[in-house]
Write a structure and sequence with these properties.
alpha+beta; 9 strands; Beta-lactamase; binds glutamine; single chain
């Protein structure tokens, strides 16, 4: 692509987001609210809205409140799964967890009580992620957490840290996840101690990132685990590709089907209001997104499914406005 074309695209996208971010902030002001079940998240400003895009040539678009850090929350499930697969092999991990969307809330306990399904439905809901967290290699939570942090650091080319305040706030109130972990243990679906596994899972949910970090992760996933900027593989391609399938089918909890149908890319959200999006390279000659891109969105007011209200609207608008379709 010529420098002139690149400049025009950058200008075009800048104009798009400079217009849309204030629009969505106003249009959906007061709709949804920051997650209240983790007390520390309740205090987040619901009006933040950030978008980051990263392209394979290294071009980055950062708009809105992109400098505000937030915690991964459920987005951590993507890295918990990939790390476990990298150490144990995907087929071993899938002996413990299924790959079926649920249609139930992300922290639902229903299926265990009914005892309808032996394995947790998929690694992108709490039950599945807690099971997979118990499989991580290491003798205690510190070692297990380190393995996941190493993968994230390799993708982002920097260290990541845990927001202790948010971790403690969730740890002290994680009644539902404790119940889930106990059900899992009762069904022989935890490979490590209940409290140790919960500690691993909850700390990983509290890793702090930015919208730009999510865009970088999305970019690496879009190119099947390859970092096009440093020209190295950071995730084995078969694992990156399998993870995108899970994101596409199960990444948005009980909104996953609608997200796939109406937004149309692999995505993963967290109750902090983050959305990780990945646009695979297209075989169609798309004027902007032919080579793929990574998307990071952040807006803390979430809907009853646990997804960012303004974030989904902005993402949907962007992808539709630029006719991004992966099928
Ligand atoms: N949906 C989410 O983001 C959930 C993550 C959160 N840490 C929990 O386990 O409840």
């Amino acid at each position: 692509m010529s420098t002139q074309q690149l400049f025009n695209i950058e200008q075009e996208l800048n104009t798009f987001f400079e217009k849309k971010i204030p629009y969505y902030k106003q249009r959906y002001s007061g709709v949804g609210a920051p997650a209240a079940y983790i007390p520390e998240l309740k205090n987040t400003n619901p009006d933040y809205l950030a978008c980051a895009l990263m392209f394979p040539d290294g071009q980055v678009i950062l708009k809105g409140d992109y400098a505000v850090p937030f915690t991964l929350q459920s987005i951590a499930k993507v890295f918990i799964f990939m790390t476990a697969c990298m150490h144990l092999g995907t087929s071993r991990v899938l002996e413990w967890v299924d790959v079926e969307p649920t249609g139930d809330p992300f922290n639902s306990i229903l299926r265990f009580e009914l005892n309808e399904n032996k394995k947790p439905f998929n690694p992108m809901i709490n039950a599945g992620a807690i099971t997979v967290a118990s499989l991580l290699p290491g003798t205690d939570s510190t070692e297990k957490i380190e393995k996941v942090k190493l993968l994230l650091s390799a993708i982002l080319d920097k260290d990541v840290s845990i927001n202790e305040k948010i971790f403690i706030s969730e740890w002290e109130t994680a009644y539902r996840n404790r119940a889930l972990a106990n059900f899992l243990m009762e069904n022989h679906l935890l490979a490590a101690d209940v409290e140790e596994t919960l500690l691993t899972y909850t700390k990983l949910c509290s890793i702090e990132i930015t919208a730009e970090d999510l865009a970088k992760i999305g970019l690496v996933l879009s190119i099947d685990g390859f970092d096009p900027i440093r020209r190295i593989e950071v995730i084995p391609s078969s694992i990156a590709r399998f993870t995108k399938i899970l994101m596409f089918t199960c990444g948005m909890y009980n909104y996953s089907g609608k997200f796939a149908a109406y937004v149309g890319i692999p995505g993963k959200s967290g109750v902090s209001g983050g959305i990780l999006g990945t646009v695979p390279p297209s075989f169609r000659n798309h004027p902007i997104l032919s080579d793929g891109c990574g998307i990071g969105i952040f807006s803390p007011a979430i809907d009853p499914c646990g997804n960012s209200v303004k974030g989904i609207k902005l993402l949907e608008d962007f992808l539709h406005s630029y006719s991004v379709q992966i099928f």
